[in-house]
Write a structure and sequence with these properties.
With 55 residues, this protein is mostly helical. The radius of gyration is 28 Å and the shape is elongated. The longest helix has 23 residues. The relative contact order is 0.06. The termini are far apart.
Length: 55
Amino acid sequence: MPQLNPNPWFLIMLTSWLIFLLAIQPKLLSFTPTNLPMNNPTPTTKTTPWTWPWA
């Protein structure tokens, strides 16, 4: 079964992951986000209890 032979595919996968980890990832992490999260207080809503007619 030739599809179970990891000989050519393992080297391709390992090379692509090394390229991603060593070359692409530091370039992506150097970008600063444009929309920083803000600490806005969440508005609280006043709730009224339900008046049941049979209670």
